[in-house]
Amino acid sequence: MPKSGAQILLECLVREGVEALFGYPGGAIIDIYDQLPNYPLKHILVRHEQGAVHMADGYARASGKVGCALVTSGPGATNAVTGIANAYLDSIPLVVITGQVPTALIGNDAFQEVDIVGITRPCTKHNFLVKDLESLPLIIRRAFHLARTGRPGPVLVDVPKDIQQKKMAFKFPSDSAVAMRSYNPTVQPNKQQLKKAVGLLLGAKRPIIYAGGGIISSNASDPLAWLARTLQIPVTCTLMGLGCFPGEDPLFLGMLGMHGTYAANMAITNSDVMLAVGARFDDRVTGKLATFAPHAKIIHVDIDPTSIRKNVRVDVPVVADCRLALEGLKEIVESRLAEKDWVAVHAPWLGQCKDWATQHPLTWKENGGIKPQYVVDAIYRLSKGQAIISTEVGQNQMWAAQFYKYNTPRTLLTSGGLGTMGFGLPAAIGAQIAFPDKLVVDVAGDGSIQMNIQELITAVCNKLPVKVVILNNGYLGMVRQWQELFYAKNYCGTCMDAQPDFVALAKAYGAVGLRATTKEEVEPVLEEAFRTPNTVIVDVRVEREENVYPMIPAGASLTEMLLV
Amino acid sequence: MRHVLSVLVENEPGVLSRISGLFSGRGFNIETLNVGPTLEEGVSVMTITTTGDDQIIEQIIKQLRKLVTVIKVVDLTELTSVELEMMLLKVHAEDAKKAEIFRLLDVFRCKIVDVGQDDIIVEATGDHDKLRALVTLLQRYGIKEMARTGAVALKRSLQLD
Ligand SMILES: Cc1ncc(C[n+]2csc(CCOP(=O)(O)OP(=O)(O)O)c2C)c(N)n1
Ligand SMILES: [Mg+2]
Q1: Is residue A327 predicted with pLDDT exceeding 80?
Q2: What is the pTM of this model?
Q3: Across the beta sheet with A297-302, what order do the strands follow?
Q4: Which pLDDT does position B161 carry in this prediction?
Q5: What percent of chain A is predicted at pLDDT more than 70?
Q6: Minimal Cα–Cα distance from B84 to chain A, Å?
Q7: Which of A68, A59, A24, A74 is nearest to A45 (CA)?
């Protein structure tokens, strides 16, 4: 029996393993909505398309599956763009379906027409405009294939309304049809390169592993941990990498870079061999390039060849899937294990790293009101390190990265590359859809939370017990911190003391609202929030002008840290 | 340094803007860009000349390869190749100067494809340096208009080193 484009599309989604769709309807996508109830897809009706894409993104980060969002043409599509760019910069696999005006009207400035394929070309891994119904099934299959293989990323498929309506006999394209001659990511590491890498690693006196989000997307935590523990190499993570190596492991030095730990930045600077895996030497990580890891020979493993030698010189490049590369390294190391007593060999270096960590640990001064670091620490203790944490952007994000210890991958969901305020709440909702029984906490700022606050109702009406903990400082705190340190305290445009009553606002949405104004209240209030089976907002009135430390001023060297 | 890249692409709508968007978005330089069909249906070849240091050229090539519609990228600069560009020039040519100009064009083996009252249209084919020299020489007579194809190039079958 012939099927409509809408039916074919939905059937393809089901066959690709999609379980949840985050979406918002409109004229150009109504045919798909018309068919939606006939398919085993859980639809989450959002309140803004940016929310839909961030939810799909949070779902993908937490679960490792491809996230899927569905929006209409024109404003629906443009509202989705921030979410798409966010996923692009963090290499998150998404398929975003946009409705488009009928084929015959494309190019005519029709009602709610935008060239979304043109707009999203630079912020998707790839995108498609479906020009005829016959190509639709293969395009959908390829979209998922592209999103989840190689360096993952968002793929957009623009589907004109007439194609949703037209009918044809449907056959699901075979796996062999999905292959593309122009797309062949290198996943297998080159053996020679791996041997060279092991040679460097085993000859090192002060080795360090610098691990990024690629470890998480390739599920490479096990071989990473094996390598680090067997050879006694300390590990530092990027923001995107947190959780890929246990935060409580004695070999873990914490995050590196602008707000990284003293130990991590000192260890990087003094290392003689660096194994960089699934990380891209972003400017927030390296600081001033000329003084970055000046003594280190660098081994760089990444699936994306463009990441290699983009910012720093590399001695041994390895283009490969991080998991396969680390497993390959493991194999070679195993055959040479007997050469030395690695615990003894690296004991002096690890001792040095430990000294740095004790000289300047991550800490805060207990004076004045509620310290935001204390709140994150309390969230960590009360959740026993078992929560999925999403963050907004700003100081809240950095404190969440510094003071919660992430012991397993996919437990920190944060907007690393784009730094998108408003990401945390919808991402938490997406994660809660993937893991209904887990504790999911959005560590939020009072500014950021207002950027997608409308999604509170999405959480409430889907009975999602997401907890939003607002580190309420009445400021766009991170910008204020820069103004304080580098702009002579000219707090222009950053004071947000006119704000809604977040407790009343929670109630208005049908959520539970709680507040803590003294340190003594923090733990009981958090306990109550975590106990409550509802969506909860906790408004924590924190010390207003607390800063995030350590901090390396933009463009300075990793050793030029401002400390607590 | 100047590099000539031969880029095989799937001939799909938008492929040109993917490539040009890559160059503009990442601040790479395009000197010339030429697109045309190949013998294989559905595949086009773009010849792109660009400049940059080794690291930039390496990035350009890797970024091009990363585009999903790009099938193959070859840096012809590293190989012995034939590189030609065609150019049409409308040159100011009073009667008194015509003979002189014609002699010059003869040396450069150019064709005169149109003669007007006080100008001529010259067709010139050659590599980058030859065309630059020609333009420089003709400038003193006055070049009224110019249209250029940008380079096209093929790798030589015999790679002698
Ligand atoms: C959409 C967006 N707009 C602007 C910024 C710039 N920005 C970065 S952090 C920040 C302040 C965030 O304030 P808040 O959410 O209260 O967090 P705090 O730093 O106070 O913890 C701003 C405005 C951004 N990252 N994203
Ligand atoms: Mg704030």
Answers
A1: yes
A2: 0.96
A3: A252-255, A235-237, A207-211, A273-277, A297-302, A316-319
A4: 65
A5: 100
A6: 27
A7: A24
- Which residue of A448, A449, A473, A547 sits with most ligand 1 atoms within 8 Å of its CB, as the best mutation to test the pocket? A448
For residues A317-331, average pLDDT: 98
Q: Residue A549: in which H helix or E strand, if any?
A: none
- One-letter identity of residue B71: I
Distance CA B43, CA A493 (A): 53
Domain parsing of chain B, residue ranges: 2-78, 82-155
Q: Which one is catalytic: A255, A421, A451, A478?
A: A478
Distance CA A283, CA A270 (A): 19
Cβ–Cβ < 8 Å for B50, B5? yes
Dist. CA A77–CA A98, nearest whole Å: 6
- Chain A residue with minimal CA distance to B54? A309
Give helix A5-15 / helix A136-148 axis angle, nearest 10°: 30
How many Cα neighbours within 13 Å face the side chain of A520? 0
Computed over every residue of chain A, the mean pLDDT equals 97
* Domains B2-78 and B82-155 alike in fold: yes
Q: What is the pLDDT of residues A174-184, one digit of tens each?
A: 999 999 999 99
Contact: B68, A126; criterion CB under 8 Å: yes
pLDDT for A368? 87
Instruction: Classify burial at B90, counting beta carbons within 10 Å of its beta carbon; exposed 0-12, middle 13-18, buried 19 or more.
Output: middle
The residue-averaged pLDDT of A518-526 equals 98
Query: Nearest chain A Cα to B7, which residue?
Result: A182
Could you tell me the two tokens for A176? 């062999």
What is the ipTM for the molecules in this complex? 0.92
CA-to-CA distance for A99 and A6, rounded, in angstroms? 11
Name the nearest CA neighbour of B64 among B46, B76, B82: B46
pLDDT tens readout for residues A475-504: 999 999 999 999 999 999 999 989 999 999
Q: What is the Cα Rg of chain B in Å?
A: 18
Angstrom distance (rounded) from CA A50 to CA A452: 8
Cα–Cα distance, A400 to A412 (Å, whole number)? 9
pLDDT band at A441 (very low <50, low <70, confident <90, very high): very high
Given CATH 3.30.70.1150, say whether it is the number of domain B82-155: yes
Cβ pair A439, A530 in contact under 8 A: yes
Q: Which residues line ligand 1 (CB under 6 A)?
A: A 392-396, 419-421, 445-448, 471, 473, 475-479
* pLDDT for A548: 98
Residues 6+ apart with CB under 8 A from A99: A26, A27, A28, A29, A30, A32, A71, A72, A73, A76, A77, A159, A160, A161, A164
Contact A318, A325 (CB under 8 A): yes
Residue B160 has pLDDT above 80, yes or no: no
Q: Mapped to the 3 state alphabet, what secondary structure does B102-114 carry? A: HHHHHHCCCEEEE
- The three state secondary structure string of A334-402 is HHHHHHCCHHHHHHHHHHHHHHHHHHCCCCCCCCCCECHHHHHHHHHHHCCCCCEEEECCCHHHHHHHH
CA-angle at A69, arms to A63 and A75, nearest 5° = 145
Domains of chain A: 3-171 (3.40.50.970), 191-359 (3.40.50.1220), 372-541 (3.40.50.970)
> A398 CB contacts (<8 Å, ≥6 apart)?
A259, A478, A548
How far apart, in whole angstroms, are the C-alpha atoms of residue A242 and residue B78? Answer: 42
Q: What CA–CA distance (Å, rounded) separates B159 from B123?
A: 30
Determine, for residues B63 and A121 on separate chains, whether the beta-carbon distance falls below 8 Å: no
CB atoms within 10 A of CB B41: 7
| Token pair of B72 as six digits | 């193959």
Nearest to A535 by CA among A474, A480, A429, A460: A460
Interface probe, candidates A103, A132, A156, A182, chain B, greatest B C-beta count within 10 A: A182
B2-78, superfamily in CATH?
ACT domain (3.30.70.260)
